[in-house]
Each structure stands twice: as structure tokens, then as C-alpha cells.
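Q: what does this look like with adenosine monophosphate bound?
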Amino acid sequence: MGYAEIYESWKSDPEAFWMKQAEAIDWDRKPSKALFDDNAPLYEWFVDGMVNTCHNAVDRHVENGRGDQVAIIHDSPVTNSKQKITFAELQTRVASLAGALRAQGVEKGDRVIIYMPMVPEALEAMLACARLGAIHSVVFGGFASSELAVRIDDCAPKAIIAGSCGIEPARTVPYKPLLDGAIEQARHKPDFCVILQREQQPAELTEGRDLDWHSFQEGAQPAECVPVEGNHPVYILYTSGTTGAPKGVIRPTAGHLVALNWTMKNIYNVDPGDVYWAASDVGWVVGHSYICYAPLIHGNTTVVFEGKPVGTPDAGTFWRVISEHNVRSFFTAPTAIRAVKREDPKGEMLKKYDLSCLRALYLAGERADPDTIEWAQKVLDKPVYDHWWQTETGYTIVGNPAGLEALPVRIGSPTVAMPGYDVQILGEDGTPKKTGELGAIAIRLPLPPGTLPSLWNAEDRFRKAYLDTFPGYYETGDAGLIDENGYLYIMARTDDVINVAGHRLSTGLMEEVLASHPDVAECAVVGVADELKGQSPLGLICLSKGVERPHEEITAECVALVRERIGPVAAFKRAIVVERLPKTRSGKILRATVAKIADGEEFRMPATIDDPAILDEIKDALHEPGHAG
Ligand code: COA
Ligand code: AMP
């Protein structure tokens, strides 16, 4: 069957479709049905099944003869090391870690925060939690203490597992002081922390609270896999929303297993045993789904890459890893390819490596611009597939089902809706738009298995953020159109979320930080076009009356403040001082207009603007030399 038949078979009988996919998973108790809709518009899947994620990702492969197959390849140009871990070794390591966590009191349902760099132990920590039915929440290493503290308070972890440091090309980032700062700031205190000491910068352990990763496992009884209900959360992953408070996306165990397993062959076109590589970070959803869970669930070897696309040591790193480890499918963000293209526009580096193993390049996380796709197609001479999804869904909403049927690539479109997703374009009043018309992208409920059933501790926010605008639909926050061939085009976000180097960031959060500066009366942050990172944040600040310090001093402090409070990942490097913010007469900040001015694009003067002259002032300020902080 091709794509159209499969999509139709799902649409005509979703229950049968998902029950069939569920057969690929090892259940402790099979679910009696797929969809549970008693609580509509809140839906759940496979609720009465009992299952364990770690068993499906690790133990069952050992039982089925894959024990000697490499499960994880750690390739770390920043530490100059490589390591391979087989499924059998992974089982031993994860069972031991889980046993040690259990001995310290971690049980099913307890939360555990993981704050680690790209080392295999990060995956082992995730799997050990899943083994016990404990709910992990991984926090990206590029976030600062305050952001870690917010997450500690929201999910109230019993334990935190952290690395002593992360390694960025230009510096070692000590995680321990960030962790200590976060615990000090947070109202909730974890019972204990486990610290993985890295030789590049070991940390001093806090007596009575911190345990050493290795020594705390000594003598611990290995833990078995604890079966959990199908709707039990395997993890919480915080992502940016419109306000400063991050949203805790819940990932339900059973649907996650079933859906991710389906994607590996049908979308990424790999068979069990193949090597699969997603160059992202475990702190993001791509890292959860496609560095850790999906490849392991499907019996693939996954690559954990600790490095950057360029500079570690050069723009040939990706190609070296693909060729050396025999990678069949490679997934990264367009920004990473742009970085490589900038350093090596002719693809000279690529010629040094035999890439015959590679079948296709997959791009997601941000808009894939035509130049980047065309360049990658040309230098690689392989298909390049854009696909669109979000933290909330955990896997492809719209993509090219290359393992099922490779559909023609139309540059600018991530292709078509995957089974499970009925994607619609709606007008502001919720009426469907015609073919080719721009509107809000919404998905008819229920969302498929594995997608978020709600937000952690925030069902009201879940309803408001996703369900209330268009009753009967999930609001994606993206705007776009569908053409006459059913191809979707993503045009923009409908909220104040921006996308910097494939990282989803909240301008609202940056505004909260800027507003806390004593000299700032009012501020706005907008996303402006950035050649490398897709977008970068630009801050407009209005000073409080009577402040007469040099503007450069204040903007530099603002830049430092965002870095300190949110972290380097915010990449907030530009702020300008303006007299007033451009607003509508009703007080709404005209962010889109500011972004257009900054991008040097044509813009229409908004009819409702309060004070048109302010736009000229902004234009001048942006083009003044030395305006950046
Ligand atoms: N721990 C600590 N700091 C981190 C970090 C981590 N895990 N990850 C990033 N940072 C820091 C960086 O060192 C940088 O700090 P700086 O301002 O001192 O230079 C800052 O956060 C921004 O990092 P990054 O977004 O990685 O930008 P960069 O300029 O270092 O590199 C790219 C640019 C394009 C090479 C890089 O963004 C990249 O590889 N992107 C791929 C995107 C990706 O994987 N997205 C995931 C979704 S698929
Ligand atoms: P995240 O939750 O961090 O994965 O970010 C999801 C958001 O990134 C989406 O809602 C889009 O705005 C954007 N995004 C992800 N993939 C794509 C894509 N292929 N094309 C355009 N935008 C994308």
C-alpha cells in the first residue's frame, strides 16, 4: 500500500489502524482498545494496557537476540573520544542505575530532573527513570539557573541527575554551580542529586545531598522494568509558550511507544539494526524522540553526538560521523546545514568521505529555506526531506513518508499529513479556508497516540492554549496553507514564540527579564531574520523617566541579564533604546511591523497605529552604527 491508501485506512478506521500498530510493542497487558474518549475534548490512548518503555527500548532487544548489537554510539569531537554500548551492556547499565535510584527512594510516578550534556549517561538516566515508572524531565544545558529553578518548582522532582560540566567549543560550562544556584532559588528541594563527574571539570559534591554517579550504584540491586498504565507519563518536557512560564508537555507511555515505532520505518526508512542519527540535543524534543526513544524502541543503533556542525573540528564533522558509523538516515535542523554551507559552500569537505551508506537527510525544527534544501540536495546528491512537528506532538505531523512511499519533494513544503493527523487551515472565526488560502493550522481532535494529553499541573492552560480557540481542533500556533495537492506550507507562528537556531524561545520570557532591569520602563522583544539561525531576538527598550546613563551601558546590561536569567541559548545579543514602543490605539505592541522594519522589508502602516512617527525612529535606531548592546 502507498501513502494515500494508508492515510485513508487510518481515516476510515483509526481504531483498527492504531491497534494494528500497537502489535509491534511488547505489552505486559494488552490494551482492550486504542482511543479513550470519555473525557473529550481530552483524549487518551491505550489507557488500560500495561507496558514499560525501557523494556521496549532495551530489554526486549536483548531477549530477541540483539544483545550484541551496538545500541548507542557516542561520538564526541569536543572530548576527542568515542564509545560504543551494546544493547546487553545498556540493559546492565540502566538496570543498575535504576536500582540505585530505587534504593534512594525513587518510585513509579516520582519526578526526576535530568540536566546533562550529550553523553550516553543522559540516555541511560532517561531509560532508568522509565524503567521504574519515574517521570523524567530533561532540561537543556544551555538554560541558566533560574530556568532550571522554574522547572524544579513546577514538577517537584525527588531527584536531579546532572553532569558536572558540558563542553562548548570555546569553553567548558560547569553545570554544578548552575544546579546549586537553581536549587537555592527553587522553593522545592530535591531529596538528592546524582552527579556524573566528567574529567574535563569535576565538581565538588555537596555533602548530604549529592551522590557520585558511580559510587552510588555500587552494591545496588539491579531493577526490573515496572509495568505502567498506558496513559502514565513517561516524561515531562518544558517548552516555550507565549508567557514566561514554560509549558510542561506530558508524554504518555503507550501512545509514545506505538507512534514512535511506526515513524522509524515509515518516515525515516530504517530497519532494525540500521544506524540512525539525529544531531540535536537530549534537552529538546528531537533528542527525546530521535536520539533516545524511537531508534532504541525500533532496534536501531543511535548516535549521540557531542559537538557542533562546524568548528569541532571543521565543517566536515557531520559527513565524517555519517561515513564512519554507517548512518542510514540523518536528521538535523536547517540551521546546522546553513552553518556547514557557510563554512564550506562548495561541499569540499564532503568529498573526503564515502557517504554511500546515507539514504536521506531529514530537516525539522524550523522553516527549511529553499537555499539550504537545494544546497544540501546538490552536495549530497540524496533526497532532503523537510518535516514539520512540535514538542507537543513528539513526532511528524506533516512529512514525506519515504519508507512507505517517497512522495515528490516540493521545496518550501514539508509535504503531507501523516496518518493520525487531520490537518486543517482555519480562519479566525474557525471556518475552514479554501485550498491555497492562508490561515491558522489546526488539527482535528483527537490528536493521535503519543501526543500531549494535557500540560503538567495545568489542564486549564492546556485547554486555553490549544483547545479553546477552535472547538473540536488542536491549535498548532503555526499559520500556513494547503495547496491543491494536499501539500502543507508553514508560513509563520501565530503567537510570540520565535525560533532561534532551531530552538523554540519565548519573547514573553525575554520581555519579563528585560522589564526587571531597574532602568527599563517598558520593552518588547521581536524575532528578526538571521542568516544563520533563522531568527534572532531583538529587544526594544524604553527607559524610565530621569535615567540618563549612556544607552550602550544599559543595553549591555540587558544583554547580560537575559544571558544570566535564561541562558546563552536565548542568543539575545541586540537591544536598542527607543522613546516609545509602537502600539495600536488599544495598546497592542506592533511586533510584526517592528520585525519587518528590522528585516528591511516593505510594510504597510497599520491603520490602528497610535503614533506613526515612532516607526521612523526605530528605523533610524536600527541603522545607527553601534546600536547593539
Ligand atoms: N550547554 C551550555 N551552553 C550551550 C549549550 C549547552 N548544552 N548549547 C548551546 N550553548 C550556548 C552556546 O555556547 C552559545 O553560547 P555563546 O553565546 O557564548 O556563543 C549559545 O548557547 C547559543 O548556542 P547555539 O544556538 O548552539 O549557537 P552557536 O552560535 O554556538 O552555534 C549553530 C550555531 C548553528 C552551529 C548551532 O545553533 C547548531 O548546531 N544548531 C543546531 C540546532 C539544533 O540542533 N536544534 C535542535 C532542534 S532539531
Ligand atoms: P519545537 O516544539 O521546539 O519542536 O518547535 C516547534 C515549532 O517549530 C513549530 O510549531 C514551528 O513553528 C517550527 N517548526 C518545526 N518544524 C518546522 C518545519 N519543518 N517548517 C517550519 N517550521 C517548523
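The radius of gyration is 24 Å. The CA atoms of residues 264 and 270 lie 6 Å apart.
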